[in-house]
Amino acid sequence: MLTEFGKIIINIRNIFTEGRKNMADKLEISEGHLSGIEEGIRSTPYEWIELIPKLYNLDLDVKNNLQYIIRYTKAESICKETLALDDETKEMIISLLLIQLKEKR
What we know:
Elements: H1 4-15, H2 20-27, H3 31-38, H4 48-56, H5 60-82, H6 87-104
């Protein structure tokens, strides 16, 4: 399933008319690894918060959105992979984590 981060990455590629292979080369990873990140199978490196806006000359708003999405994706991943909880409880935990992230901004 495509993650929110994956949707942003695909959008960036579309804007710059760039294929997954070219983006993967710029990020110094394999195309399969990038695909896994887009689909939520692999975790997104925090370094990409700085690297992607730099590589594509993106503004601060995009950088902030990437940071938020990466953290949200990681929080969601923790809930799904390590906790055997019902969906309602997972959503509550994600909401609490997001509140903490917003307070740190």
